[in-house]
Amino acid sequence: MRIGELAEAVGVSTRAVRHYHRIGLLPEPPRRINGYRTYGVRDVLRLARVRRLTELGLSLDEAADVLADDEGRELGEILAEIDADLARQEVEIRRRRERLAELLRRAADGPLDADDAVSVPTAELLDRMTTAFPGSDAARRDREFLALLDTSGAAALVAEQYREVLHDPEVVARTAELYRRFDELATRSVDDPDVTELARDFAAAVPAELVTGIDPGLDLDAHPFAAAFLRDLAPAQAEAVRRVYGIWSGR
């Protein structure tokens, strides 16, 4: 049996057979005098097993384990792992479809932008912030930062903390004032007294739950992301952020 006949018998490509030879998954028979490889029934059976196992979701390495004579993992163990992984994928797919359905409903009311693809709790928080603090550059940066945090799920705590407080007119007014003062620092010098005053007021306004566990030894200017964030600010604003972090970390 030639390589093309072997591949046809099992329903794979000759390229796949040659790849299995290269990685040692399928033993390569010696070439005959005419230069051709000749395959037997055992090769057909092994190749068929490889195809069945990979169709079940096993990687080629896992298929090799199963087919090993004495050292391989039990097929039942690997299949159980695959089943568990498929179950997790089903949950994730269901969650994604629910989010897509929500975005499609919102798209019916008007155009979406890139940050609308965040999770529902974060999207609700961003909407409330847009309504509560229109025109503030500081609020805009915070919305962008929350959208970024959403990729790791870290924004969930923030969304939970602020979901209700942004309905409180007094809290909204105090926060809007902090944003206004921060925006004004864009034209101030680093040694302006408002830098220290704003840092103190801002640090006190943030719920303690959001700053517990921060690294007191972290140097913001040495951290790649924090340093990039500070460079995007005016000098006085960046200094205010450093001082806020110093207050939170007890320095």
TrEMBL record:
PROSITE patterns: HTH_MERR_2. Residues 79-106 form a coiled coil. SUPFAM superfamilies: Putative DNA-binding domain. Residues 1-69 form the HTH merR-type domain. InterPro entries: DNA-bd_dom_put_sf, MerR-type_HTH_dom, MerR_fam. Keywords: Coiled coil, DNA-binding. This is MerR family transcriptional regulator.
